[in-house]
Structure formats: structure tokens, C-alpha cells
Specification:
alpha+beta; nine-stranded antiparallel beta sheet; 2 helices; 20% helix
């Protein structure tokens, strides 16, 4: 009897939590572009673009990823995601010069705060409005 109850509980819980996730390549929204523009003002390695892939669940944006053509650039990989509230973005890029660099940038009370992790130099950096306020070598 316990086996049947467990089986039914798993079946009904998986049905109730099922969501349809879709993606669509779209032009960035005004709010997304304003975030990118403000971030790019202080951190030009975060590029501006007009196209974005939005991921939807039940009609709401749950994630946004930018696509880049990196042919002819110094990057072997470049990824950028925008969170649904349009106040934070995450980034990751790889080049021969810098190695893997990743982190996030978020708006906080009108300021632009960036946390960057650089694998090649083993450094963590926190910057506020384009100026380094903390730099630490990990090893």
C-alpha cells in the first residue's frame, strides 16, 4: 500500500509542477537596454546589443541570454544573461589575454556594482561605478 501511495504522490506532484518553457529571439526591451547602457557606461567590456533570447514560463520572462558573434574578436566565449527584474546581469567571457573572467553587475540605489572573478590571475575585484573598491588575490 505504501508503494502505491508513494507512486501516486510522485505522479501528482510532477504533474502539478510541470511548466512549459519557451524561448524567443527578440529585440531587447527598453528596461533591458537601459540596464545594458548604464552598465556599459562604466564597464565597456559588457557590450551593448539589440537582440536577446528571452525564456518564458507561463508567459513570464524567467531568464534572458544575449547571443554574440565572436568571430574576429579576441573572445573564444562570451555569455551575458539578464535577470527578470532588469537590475542584475551575469557575464562570462574567455580570451587568451584574460583567461576566464566571470561575475555579475547589479544596480543598487542608482549605483552600478560589479563583482569580477578572474581565473588567470586568481583575483576577485569589486567595483563601484567603474572604480575598484576591493581587489584580492586568492592564492
Amino acid at each position: 500500500m505504501k508503494k502505491y501511495f508513494l507512486l501516486l504522490a510522485i505522479l501528482f506532484s510532477s504533474i502539478s509542477f510541470a511548466q512549459t518553457i519557451t524561448s524567443k529571439l527578440e529585440e531587447v526591451s527598453v528596461d533591458q537596454y537601459e540596464l545594458l547602457k548604464k552598465v556599459n557606461q562604466y564597464y565597456p567590456d559588457i557590450t551593448l546589443t539589440k537582440a536577446i533570447t528571452n525564456f518564458y514560463a507561463d508567459g513570464n520572462i524567467i531568464d534572458s541570454q544575449q547571443q554574440f558573434d565572436i568571430k574576429g574578436t579576441k573572445f573564444s566565449s562570451y555569455k551575458l544573461g539578464i535577470e527578470p527584474d532588469n537590475k542584475k546581469l551575469v557575464f562570462e567571457y574567455v580570451s587568451d589575454d584574460t583567461g576566464k573572467v566571470y561575475g555579475n553587475v547589479q544596480l543598487f540605489k542608482g549605483s552600478v556594482l560589479r563583482t569580477t572573478f578572474t581565473d588567470k590571475t586568481d583575483q576577485v575585484e569589486v567595483s563601484l561605478n567603474g572604480k575598484s573598491v576591493f581587489l584580492k588575490k586568492i592564492k
